[in-house]
């Protein structure tokens, strides 16, 4: 992680040389401790690195066709019975006994793969408990392979290297946000997507639970769509939304330059930054000048293209909330500081990792609208206290996820999936929805 210099020359060099991660992209720890992955010698790690093939890129985000008359669609959807959400399956409840062997557990997942994936599609997520198989990375991989899940690269791949659990750069199992310096940072509810790419599904695993807190959070995007007021749904959908994905707050020195040169220098810096960022990411980024911090320091803010906050599910066609306002709104994050404490900025890169959300036409979203989205989100959040070996398998388009604050040492991992065996058959069999 590059630490930006605050001098004019170093700032320009840094802008043209590197890109860093952002909270909008879900920042990740650079540490790679070894909880839940067993003990491997250096020789074993080098051998594994040589034999593992890199997974494919995360698939392109499926925005789908525009939903005509979104208000009417919501009204029709509200007439339908509320679908189920996140059922739990335990090893003992499915007849595996108290201490089933790894082979017995793998056989269960393989034999029931179709029904378990169908359960995920119908209920957004499935929580697996009391399976010893997934307490270590090797067993976790065997779990999702038995289900027929197809791994892909972390969607952050184009902008940053999220650490893997075992330290192998080609490993399909990534660190969740376990970093000690981020323990008092409540990760708001979001779907995983970066620019033009979004995994179809994910499996989150607990290798070591935090001593206090650290619950994994999930919420049903269909319920969000149902519960938001029609006026707000219509306004957000028609105007769309866009995110600012980073802030570069290093340019106060420009205002100390002679006035005649401030404009050309600002233009040069913006051009350098724009070229560097757009060369790195696979989506268009729009830079604009603004002010940040208590002292209103001159900064550059990077905004992603506008997008709809509601999409139709790629398999079932259900309308679902696909919007990261709860995690990305600077106002909502600031409000949470009164409960959890201020965000900790450990280095210059952390100062850059700030996001926000606006209407797609760049208009500000009112505090009243943000309050409603926040309240409806919390109404639908489920706190999942995971223990070693527990897994949450979720559909990334229907199910938002987040993480509670914690104390102690937490080691959770995640695998991302581009799809699964039988997905096309599910899509063909899906019943029409409003």
The average pLDDT score comes to 85
- Cα-atom radius of gyration: 22 Å
Instruction: Flag low-confidence runs.
Output: 1-50, 346-350
Could you give the count of β-strands?
19
Total helix count? 14
The secondary-structure class comes to alpha+beta
Description:
This protein is of the alpha+beta class and 434 residues long. It is built from 14 helices and 19 strands. The chain has helices at residues 8-17, 42-51, 70-79, 102-111, 113-123, 137-147, 221-227, 230-239, 259-280, 325-328, 330-340, 348-352, 367-380, 423-429, and strands at 88-90, 125-129, 149-151, 173-175, 187-190, 201-208, 212-213, 216-220, 241-248, 286-292, 297-303, 310-312, 319-321, 356-359, 381-384, 391-395, 399-403, 406-407, 411-420. Strands 1, 2, 3, 4, 6, 16 and 19 form a seven-stranded mixed sheet that branches. The chain has a four-stranded antiparallel sheet with strand order 5-17-8-15. It has a four-stranded antiparallel sheet with strand order 10-11-9-14. The protein is globular and about 75 Å long. Residues 1-50 and 346-350 have low confidence and may be disordered.
Q: What labels would you give this structure?
A:
disordered N terminus, globular, four-stranded antiparallel β-sheet, seven-stranded mixed β-sheet, alpha+beta, 434 residues
In short:
The chain is an alpha+beta fold. The protein is 33% helix and 21% strand. The longest helix has 22 residues, at 259-280.
Helices and strands in order, then pairings?
Layout: H1 8-17, H2 42-51, H3 70-79, E1 88-90, H4 102-111, H5 113-123, E2 125-129, H6 137-147, E3 149-151, E4 173-175, E5 187-190, E6 201-208, E7 212-213, E8 216-220, H7 221-227, H8 230-239, E9 241-248, H9 259-280, E10 286-292, E11 297-303, E12 310-312, E13 319-321, H10 325-328, H11 330-340, H12 348-352, E14 356-359, H13 367-380, E15 381-384, E16 391-395, E17 399-403, E18 406-407, E19 411-420, H14 423-429
Helix pairs in contact: 1-9, 3-8, 4-6
């Amino acid at each position: 992680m590059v630490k930006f210099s605050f001098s004019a020359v170093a700032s320009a060099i840094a802008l043209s040389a590197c890109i860093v991660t952002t909270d909008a992209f879900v920042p990740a720890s650079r540490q790679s401790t070894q909880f839940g992955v067993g003990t491997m010698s250096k020789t074993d790690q080098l051998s594994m690195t040589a034999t593992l093939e890199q997974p494919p890129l995360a698939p392109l985000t499926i925005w789908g066709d525009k939903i005509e008359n979104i208000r009417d669609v919501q009204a029709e959807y509200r007439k339908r019975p509320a679908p189920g959400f996140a059922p739990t399956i335990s090893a003992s409840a499915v007849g595996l006994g108290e201490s089933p062997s790894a082979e017995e557990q793998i056989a269960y997942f393989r034999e029931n793969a179709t029904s378990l994936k169908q359960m995920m599609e119908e209920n957004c997520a499935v929580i697996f408990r009391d399976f010893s198989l997934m307490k270590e990375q090797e067993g976790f991989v065997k779990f999702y392979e038995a289900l027929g899940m197809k791994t892909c690269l972390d969607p952050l791949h184009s902008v940053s290297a999220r650490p893997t659990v075992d330290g192998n750069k080609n490993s399909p199992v990534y660190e969740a946000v376990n970093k000690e310096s981020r323990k008092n940072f409540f990760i708001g509810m979001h779907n995983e997507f970066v620019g033009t790419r979004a995994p179809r599904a994910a499996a989150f695993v607990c290798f070591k639970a935090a001593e206090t807190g650290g619950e994994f959070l999930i919420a049903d995007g269909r319920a969000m769509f149902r519960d938001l007021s029609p006026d707000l749904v219509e306004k957000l959908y028609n105007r769309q939304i866009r995110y600012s994905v980073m802030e570069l707050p290093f340019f106060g020195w420009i205002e100390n330059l002679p006035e005649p040169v401030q404009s050309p220098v600002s233009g040069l810096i913006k051009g350098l930054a724009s070229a560097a960022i757009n060369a790195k990411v696979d989506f268009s980024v729009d830079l604009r000048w603004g002010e940040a911090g208590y002292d209103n320091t001159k900064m550059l803010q990077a905004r992603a293209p506008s997008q709809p906050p509601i999409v139709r599910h790629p398999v079932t066609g259900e309308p679902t909330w696909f919007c990261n306002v709860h995690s990305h709104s600077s106002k909502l994050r600031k409000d949470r500081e009164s409960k959890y404490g201020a965000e900790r900025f450990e280095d210059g890169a952390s100062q850059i990792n700030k996001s926000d959300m606006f209407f797609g036409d760049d208009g500000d979203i009112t505090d009243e609208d943000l309050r409603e989205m926040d309240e409806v989100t919390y109404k639908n959040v489920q706190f999942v206290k995971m223990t070693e070996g527990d897994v949450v398998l979720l559909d990334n388009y229907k199910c938002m996820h987040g993480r509670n604050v914690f104390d102690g040492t937490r080691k959770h991992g995640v695998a991302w999936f581009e799809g699964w065996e039988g997905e096309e058959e599910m899509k063909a069999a899906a019943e029409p929805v409003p």
